[in-house]
């Protein structure tokens, strides 16, 4: 076995650490993690673990969320630069200004936000439960949905509800929208199409409702939703519109099936900042701790707890 992996295995045992990895992590990290999943699953796992040390192989907002839910545990991220372009599209001050313009509105924030933004929010959602959370809000309430405009458009279509939507997007998923979806459908007529709701393409396809909803082999899912779908699908051909790291996990779930990325360039450089070497160093030196100041964590906990309750 690779020496670095051996060291990681020795250190995780010695320190009673749990390694959580997002579905976009490199294959080697997914293979050694205690749990691999989507944002919702990772938050649930962080809340449930009895380990004293959590090493989060994902991006910063995910580690922050884990630290807010488990304030007595030490949460580490192997590279502090692992950020998120989508989370960076709105800060707390911008949100406060937006709220002032819409007094009394309910603020629904995607989990891809900083702790400061969560602290200004009423609900947090992930792509797995955004529709359910919005459905649970009384219909007479105005909703400010942030920061992803494509997920927001998807939630509007699914719930039939109009919301104020922040004009943010993820640079990786937005670009997937440049790929000609109809060409891909024509080239793979028998494939099931799995699309993440952050995709630019998801909302352009939705605007052409006949493509999206009348087309029985196009499905919009969170990353873990894609895994669950593939597990139960009789199909052996899938075209996947999200970050390509998920292909490793999908191939493990169904080794004989073919999985094609809708865009090979859909690579999140932030997710890929986590390597075996910096994971080893993270365990060895207990770096880099992600700790949210108490006053912000206190206020951010309520919307996160609401997110964990509505699954
Ligand atoms: P999921 O919650 O679907 O895993 O998505 C997280 C993310 O960052 C997508 O880009
Ligand atoms: Fe953020 Fe996009 Fe990377 Fe997901 S893929 S972590 S939304 S930058």
Task: Describe this protein's structure.
With 311 residues, the chain is α/β, with parallel strands linked by helices. It has 3 domains: 2-83 and 271-292, NadA-like (Rossmann fold, 3-Layer(aba) Sandwich); 87-169, NadA-like (Rossmann fold), CATH 3.40.50; 172-261, NadA-like (Rossmann fold). The chain has helices spanning 3-14, 27-32, 39-48, 60-69, 92-101, 115-119, 130-135, 149-159, 171-176, 181-187, 200-207, 209-212, 223-232, 246-253, 276-285, 294-309; strands spanning 17-22, 35-37, 53-57, 74-76, 106-110, 123-125, 143-146, 164-165, 192-195, 218-220, 237-241, 258-261. A 4-stranded parallel sheet has the order 2-1-3-4, with helices on both faces. It has a 4-stranded parallel sheet with strand order 6-5-7-8. Strand 5 (106-110), helix 6 (115-119) and strand 6 form a beta-alpha-beta unit. The longest helix is centred in the last third of the chain and has 16 residues, at 294-309. It is globular and about 55 Å long. Mean pLDDT is 93; it is low at 209-214. Bound molecules: 1,3-dihydroxyacetonephosphate (13P) and iron/sulfur cluster.
Q: What is this entry, summarized?
A:
The protein has 311 residues and is α/β, with parallel strands linked by helices. It has helices at residues 3-14, 27-32, 39-48, 60-69, 92-101, 115-119, 130-135, 149-159, 171-176, 181-187, 200-207, 209-212, 223-232, 246-253, 276-285, 294-309; strands spanning 17-22, 35-37, 53-57, 74-76, 106-110, 123-125, 143-146, 164-165, 192-195, 218-220, 237-241, 258-261. It has three domains: 2-83 and 271-292, 3-Layer(aba) Sandwich (Rossmann fold), CATH 3.40.50.10800; 87-169, Rossmann fold, CATH 3.40.50.10800; 172-261, Rossmann fold.
């Amino acid at each position: 076995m690779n020496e670095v992996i051996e060291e990681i295995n020795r250190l995780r045992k010695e320190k009673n650490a749990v390694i959580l990895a997002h579905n976009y992590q490199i294959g080697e990290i997914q293979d050694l993690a205690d749990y691999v999943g989507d944002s919702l699953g990772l938050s649930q796992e962080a809340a449930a673990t009895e380990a004293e040390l959590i090493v989060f192989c994902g991006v910063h907002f995910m580690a922050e969320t884990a630290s807010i839910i488990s304030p007595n545990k030490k949460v580490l991220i192997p590279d502090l630069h692992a950020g998120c372009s989508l989370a960076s599209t709105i800060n707390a001050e911008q949100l406060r200004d937006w709220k002032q313009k819409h007094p009394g509105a309910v603020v629904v924030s995607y989990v891809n936000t900083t702790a400061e933004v969560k602290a200004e929010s009423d609900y947090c959602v992930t792509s797995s439960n955004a529709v359910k959370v919005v459905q649970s809000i009384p219909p007479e309430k105005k909703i400010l949905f942030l920061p992803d405009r494509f997920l927001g458009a998807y939630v509007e279509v699914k719930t039939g509800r109009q919301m104020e939507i922040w004009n943010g997007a993820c640079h990786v998923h937005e670009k997937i929208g440049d790929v000609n979806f109809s060409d891909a459908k024509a080239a793979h007529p028998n494939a099931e199409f799995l699309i993440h709701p952050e995709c630019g393409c998801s909302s352009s396809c939705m605007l052409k409702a006949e493509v999206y909803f009348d087309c029985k082999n196009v499905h919009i899912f969170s990353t873990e939703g894609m895994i669950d779908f593939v597990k139960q699908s009789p199909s052996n051909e899938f075209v996947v519109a999200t970050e390509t790291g998920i292909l490793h996990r999908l191939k493990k779930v169904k080794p004989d099936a073919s999985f094609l990325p809708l865009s090979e360039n859909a690579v999140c450089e932030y997710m890929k900042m986590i390597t075996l070497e910096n994971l080893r160093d993270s365990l060895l030196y207990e770096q880099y701790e992600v700790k949210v100041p108490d006053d912000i964590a206190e206020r951010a906990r309520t919307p996160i707890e609401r997110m964990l309750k509505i699954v």
